[in-house]
């Protein structure tokens, strides 16, 4: 059973398992959330020693799972509700330095260099005035060489500025501008994970602009093109907006203009289904919505002269070491997007066409719909052509209705005859020809031309005769 934990409950459990002679403190992002009285799900603790015994005892106390995260640096993790999406992570590390002060000063930014001595009635330890910076919405480095110690911190600065609406001070901005030559000293996997955290903030246009300004998009996607990024900013803005009004809780003010209002009118009825789809539908390393945004950026960022876009996306996904499944997801979603772009809006969208679309693209067909709508929404001509926008929305609504409401009827209808039965009745060995006949039967079933076993047999025999002729 999933349990909700408050920070006081975590602190109480820690007090039970940590010897009174050992110093241990809450640090990092959890402190920021603590100061803002926000719910904490990721706890970072630093201790002067006994990290592993503390972690094991805490796991037993809270019925959690214990892991060694970094053997060399002596970092362990306890996960609570490990079988649920609503899990809590508790990391425990040894001091980086001889004591707490050395540990805090060695950190990246002052707002991350605050500790709570919860063993002593929640006393705040703040040697670099990080709490004041947090209050003033200011992002400062802990030391002048903070980024040189770990160049990834430059990208993290962008994430934190976006996430907490902070203003980077001049010293930090200068350091970020000068860090590019040192970026290769960190693994691409670390940049990738930070990049996806930034995409998860749903502030994509601002993220694109900052990542481009400081050279991170160029570094991640290895391009020397000088083309404009405004089209990418436009489609990123459209995607964020459509995902908000079509997959999140409805707020009338967010869809007050005609174009947005029409989108909600035509697609809003699928809101709950789309939200569940994007929250739960894929088992990938990175979050579904962020992978959708990656696909847009990989397909749109300075791709002129790079050849076939599908190959560009695949190459860029490999460069940042996405998994095989994630690469397949991204490229297939892009292919679905392009398929819809070539759709003839004047032609009727039949159930058979919808079946063929999802047979080819599977659940990536839903992502393709969002990508297609986002691009169309970003075009200036759509803003003055409500008729075309309405037709596009109505076509997309047909696809969504088939997937969410008529799946067993259109997407995957129940088979009324098997391949083995067809082989026996038609005296044809299993192979491509049987597969073609089965597909023809399925489409005839979707078109309601047949509905029984006998009708399927008669259809198959006639189909075979017609193809022989």
What does this structure look like?
With 469 residues, the protein is of the alpha+beta class. It has four domains: 1-136, Beta Polymerase, domain 2 (2-Layer Sandwich), CATH 3.30.460; 137-221, Hydrophobic Seed Protein, CATH 1.10.110.30; 222-411, no CATH class; 419-468, no CATH class. The protein contains 25 helices and nine strands. The protein has helices at 7-17, 29-35, 51-62, 100-105, 130-135, 146-149, 152-164, 170-178, 188-199, 204-213, 216-221, 230-247, 258-267, 271-280, 288-300, 309-319, 324-341, 351-361, 364-378, 380-383, 386-405, 407-411, 419-426, 432-446, 453-468; strands spanning 24-27, 42-47, 65-70, 75-80, 88-94, 115-117, 123-125, 138-139, 167-168. The strands form two sheets. Strands 3-4-5-2-1-6-7 form a seven-stranded mixed β-sheet. A two-stranded parallel sheet has the order 8-9. A hairpin with a 5-residue loop joins strand 6 and strand 7.
Q: What general outline do the C-alpha atoms trace?
A: globular
- State the low-pLDDT regions, or none: none
Major β-sheet annotation: 7 strands, mixed
State the strand order across the main sheet. Answer: 3-4-5-2-1-6-7
Number of helices: 25
Strand pairing plus helix content: what structural class? alpha+beta
Percentage beta strand: 5-15%
Q: How confident overall, as mean pLDDT?
A: 92
Range of helix content: 55-70%
User: What would you report as the Rg, rounded to the nearest angstrom?
Assistant: 27 Å
Quaternary structure classification: single chain
In the residues, how many domains can be counted?
Answer: 4
**How many angstroms does the end-to-end distance come to?**
64 Å
Structure summary, number of beta strands = 9
């Amino acid at each position: 059973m999933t349990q909700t934990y408050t920070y006081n409950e975590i602190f109480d459990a820690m007090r039970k398992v940590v010897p009174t002679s050992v110093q241990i403190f809450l640090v990092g992002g959890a402190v920021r959330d603590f100061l803002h009285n926000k719910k904490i799900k990721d706890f970072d603790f630093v201790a002067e020693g006994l990290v592993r015994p503390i972690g094991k005892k805490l796991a037993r106390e809270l019925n959690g799972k214990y892991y060694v995260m970094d053997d060399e640096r002596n970092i362990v993790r306890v996960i609570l509700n490990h079988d649920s999406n609503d899990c809590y992570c508790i990391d425990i590390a040894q001091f980086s330095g001889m004591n707490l002060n050395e540990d805090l000063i060695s950190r990246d930014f002052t707002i991350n260099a605050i500790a709570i001595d919860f063993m002593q009635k929640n006393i705040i330890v703040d040697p670099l005035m990080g709490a004041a910076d947090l209050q003033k919405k200011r992002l400062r480095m802990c030391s002048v060489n903070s980024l040189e110690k770990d160049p990834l911190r430059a990208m993290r600065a962008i994430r934190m500025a976006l996430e907490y609406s902070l203003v980077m001070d001049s010293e930090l901005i200068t350091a970020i501008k000068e860090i590019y030559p040192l970026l290769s000293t960190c693994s691409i996997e670390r940049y990738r994970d930070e990049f996806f955290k930034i995409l998860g903030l749903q502030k994509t246009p601002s993220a694109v602009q900052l990542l481009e300004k400081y050279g991170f998009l160029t570094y991640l996607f290895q391009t020397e093109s000088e083309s404009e990024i405004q089209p990418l900013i436009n489609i990123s803005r459209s995607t964020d907006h459509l995902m908000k009004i079509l997959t999140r809780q409805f707020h009338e003010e967010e869809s007050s203009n005609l174009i947005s209002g029409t989108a909600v009118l035509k697609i809003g009825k699928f809101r709950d289904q789309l939200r569940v789809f994007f929250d739960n539908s894929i088992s990938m390393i990175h979050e579904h919505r962020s992978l959708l945004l990656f696909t847009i950026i990989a397909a749109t960022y300075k791709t002129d002269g790079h050849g076939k876009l599908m190959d560009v996306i695949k190459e860029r996904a490999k460069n940042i070491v996405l998994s095989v499944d994630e690469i397949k997801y991204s490229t297939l979603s892009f292919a679905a997007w392009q398929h819809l772009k070539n759709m003839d809006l004047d032609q009727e969208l039949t159930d058979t066409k919808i079946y063929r679309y999802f047979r080819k693209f599977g659940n990536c067909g839903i992502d393709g719909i969002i990508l297609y709508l986002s691009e169309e929404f970003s075009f200036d001509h759509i803003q003055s052509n409500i008729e075309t926008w309405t037709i596009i929305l109505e076509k997309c609504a047909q696809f969504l209705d088939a997937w969410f409401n008529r799946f067993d009827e259109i997407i995957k209808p129940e088979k009324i005859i098997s391949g083995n039965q067809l082989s026996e009745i038609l005296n044809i060995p299993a192979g491509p020809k049987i597969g073609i006949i089965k597909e023809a039967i399925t489409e005839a079933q979707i078109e309601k031309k047949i509905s029984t076993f006998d009708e399927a047999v008669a259809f198959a025999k006639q189909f075979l005769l017609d193809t022989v002729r």
